[in-house]
Structures are given as C-alpha cells and as structure tokens.
Amino acid sequence: MDKPWEGMLKLGIVHFMAFPETIRGEGPILETVTKIAEDDFFTEIEVTWMKDPEVRRKVRDALKIGHLTVGYGAQPPLLIRKLDLNSLDEEERKRAVAQVKACIDEAVELGAKRVAVLSGPDPGEPHRARASELLVRSLKELCDYGRGKGIGITLEIFDREVDKRCLIGPAVEAAAIAEEVRKDFDDFGLLYDLSHLPLLREKPLEALSAIKDYLVHIHVGNCAMRDPSHPAFGDQHPRFGIEGGENDVPQLVEFLRALFKVGYLTEKPTGELPIVAFEVKPLPGESPELVIANTKRVWREAWAKL
C-alpha cells in the first residue's frame, strides 16, 4: 500500500488486554494508559471499567491531552461477573443490562462514543431462538439508554464452540441480530476480531461480507486453537507469530484486503476514519511493551504488502 494508514484509518489498541493486570478495574490503570497515550503510533484506545472515580478523572484528562479517540469495552465486567444479556432468566438478564448501563455512564465520563458488549453463553439449539430474541431486547434497551447520552452500542462477535462459547457467534447470525436492532437504532453496529476468525472457522471475505452493512469496529490479533495444552489456547490473544498460533503477517494481510473489498476501509460519508485496533495480550512472564512492539512490526510489514 503506497498510502499511509494514518489518512485511511484510526489505529488503536485495547488497553486492558495489553495490560491485563488492569482488566478487573483496578491496578496501574493510569500509568499504563499514559504509556499508550505517550505513544503517537496509536490514535485510538479502548478502556474498560475503572472502579476508582479519581482514576477515571485522571485517565480522562490524560486521554484528552493525548488527543486519543476513546472506545469503551464492557466485555470484562460482563465476563468477570458472569452476566448474560440473553439469559432466559429475566432477573439475570436485567442484571446484565444494569451493568452495561453503568458502563455507559463511565464511558460518557471518559469521553467515549461507543460501548462494546458481547452476547451471553450459547444455550444450545433448543433455546437459541429465544435467547436471540432476548439479546435483541437487551441491546435495544441499551441503545435507548445510550442514545440519550451520545453513546452507540457495539456487539462483538465471539466464538461459539472453543472458549467463550457465546450465542453470537457466526457472522450470518450476527447480521440477523444487527438487522433487528437497526430497525429502531441505526447507530448500532458489530465488531469483528481477526483473533476470533479461526475460532469460528470462518474465512475473512465470507464473514466480513455477511456483516459489512453493520460493521463499525475491527480488532486484529492472534489465537491458538490446535493444541489444548498451548499456554494461549482459546481466546487469549497471544502475540502475532507465536508458535502454534493461527495469525501472523500473511493472515493480517488477507484480513485487511477483505476489509478493503467489503468497503470498511474506505472513506465514510461522515468523514470519520474507520477504526482498526490491536487486541494482544502478553503471556505470563512476557513484557507488554515487547508484545506491543511485535504488533507494530507486524502491522508495518502487513501494510507494506497490501
């Protein structure tokens, strides 16, 4: 590609995966967010819950000074607290919705414009249709709550059979959910992650074509799925090129080419640049800074091959 990516997309990073000690809303959040804000390679950052209001205030200021676009991921509190937006138990479903509403409030405070969620566990074929209806209900409730606060809702697509085992799930089924929600909320969208592509046994162009009309966010990363004894087996987002992993430069190149073909990496009518964000996580004993450096090298090489 002879054009610089800076004019074509916002390149981001998922903070709470790069620095997993912060994923529970505690730990060195401000210090590690500041590290990313000081790195002008990134123009977007994705953060999650922060239990200390003073930390949120200081993080907001750091992100504003750093001129970073901010995204908010509600996936950690949903997963850690085992909350389910498509639970067949109405009280459990309401608890999940309440948690995301609290996340929306935090997102407003932090200057984010979108909040990402995930569906709950897949209940199996006999209950899948009902769970999908309940997921749509939850998403519409959240979209309605977010609309009054300037927040759009994004549903991230996860694996159904290997690790998270979520209801959504296959790209074609994600598109059906998005179609229903979009009937009332046209700012709702989907997030697809290169890390989840092998776990779903999908192909880049096929999967992205199915959801292209609803695609509002992209993550890129790696996974390991062939050996259950692998330290990063499942949805663990190890560094690119790790032995036994699925994604490296060639897979990123193929994925980016598919994003161009489906129209995601093209100029938007609004003039806003699309977001592509790294989601990578150091294994125990690995340096987050080295893993981030790995992703930068892989990105530069992949972009040069487009």
Strand-helix topology:
Layout: E1 10-14, H1 15-18, H2 29-37, E2 44-47, H3 53-65, E3 69-73, H4 75-80, H5 90-110, E4 114-118, H6 125-147, E5 152-156, H7 171-182, E6 189-193, H8 204-211, E7 215-220, H9 249-261, E8 275-278, H10 288-304
Parallel strand pairs: 1-2, 1-8, 2-3, 3-4, 4-5, 5-6, 6-7, 7-8
Task: Please explain how this structure is put together.
41% of the residues lie in helices and 13% in strands. The chain has 306 residues and is α/β, with parallel strands linked by helices. It has a single domain (5-304), classed as Divalent-metal-dependent TIM barrel enzymes (TIM Barrel), CATH 3.20.20.150. The chain has an 8-stranded parallel β-barrel, surrounded by 4 helices. The longest helix is centred in the middle third of the chain and has 23 residues, at 125-147. The protein is globular and about 50 Å long.
Task: Name the descriptors.
13% strand; eight-stranded parallel beta barrel; globular; 10 helices; 41% helix; alpha/beta; TIM Barrel; 306 residues
Query: Average pLDDT, to the nearest integer?
Result: 97
CATH T-level fold name: TIM Barrel
Assembly of the depicted chains: single chain
Q: DSSP strand (E) fraction?
A: 5-15%
Shape annotation: globular
Encode the helix/strand succession as letters. EHHEHEHHEHEHEHEHEH
- Terminal CA distance reads 5 Å
Architecture (CATH level 2) name: Alpha-Beta Barrel
Number of helices: 10
The order of strands across the largest sheet is 1-2-3-4-5-6-7-8
Query: CATH H level: which superfamily?
Result: Divalent-metal-dependent TIM barrel enzymes
Write down the domain tally.
Answer: 1
**Contiguous runs where pLDDT drops below 50 for at least 5 residues:** none
Q: Into which percent range does the helicity of residues fall?
A: 40-55%
Q: How does the helix and strand content classify structurally? A: alpha/beta
Number of strands: 8
What is the CA-atom radius of gyration, in angstroms? 18 Å
